[in-house]
Fold:
Amino acid sequence: MSGSSILITGGDGFVGRWVCDLLSRRDYRIISASRTAAERAGADAYRRIALDLTGHDDLRPLLEGVDCIVHLAARTHVMRDSAADPLREYRRVNTEGTAKLATAAARAGVRRFVFLSSIKVNGERTTTRPYTATDEPHPEDAYGLTKWEAERALRAVEARTGMQVAILRPPLVYGPGVGANFLRLMRLVARGVPLPLGAVDNRRSMIYVGNLADAVRACVETPQAAGETYLASDGADLSTPQLIRAVAHALGVEPRLFAMPVPWLAAAAALLGQRATISRLTQSLQVDSSRLRGHLQWQPPFTAEAGLAETAAWFHAVGSP
Structure:
């Protein structure tokens, strides 16, 4: 793939910026596409173009000369969803938009399509063992369901046209620029808020954004990735108390943990309408990334400790966002 042209959707996003920067340093011609971008040459040595997958425009002119697509753009979790039909909105972007792009890509002669899916395709929690890529999918929310539908649409295009498709399902992604629940946890730890999670005994997989970008690179560059689905993680599964202590250490503060029985936490969360949040903090979600590591000879370039240190440095640099 050296010297090839790669179109990266969602290139202005949290993961997209890392992927664009990494691949642009590896002798690829990068086109960063996002819904609101203007056509221009960026200061980052790659082009930026506007691409709306929910519109009616013919995508093929934008794909001329493109050898590979890395599809990161998606409708992700919306905390306060104002859509009249949220599932329909997720499908319009995540399922139908992906199918539209893949169909146009195959017609334009794109050779490889790398899709960033989600571990939510597998489910929301693990009990006796980590998830693997061969497990029966069991999505429980609109986001996970529409990512699974998108995966099936991609496999159908692959079977029909021969375009090579590689799929990655990451768990929680963290790193400089992170938002949502991970950022909220960092704020609480940084402010010294006592957290009643000391009795939680779970294990959760995560992946540093730099490691995820490198896993995407491996799927772009390695012939064996064609037709495969991989799970990716840092390889260091932490309990919630261990994570809080690691975040506190990275931030240079003392962790403030006390133990409250998990059933009490669940009952309090139900009363406050925070059942899903407490479920994520108390239940396990582990992934087995051994297939990615063995099949593609991939090793994460950053340790979890280094990833948390970089995230903490960003947090301090921007003034505790």
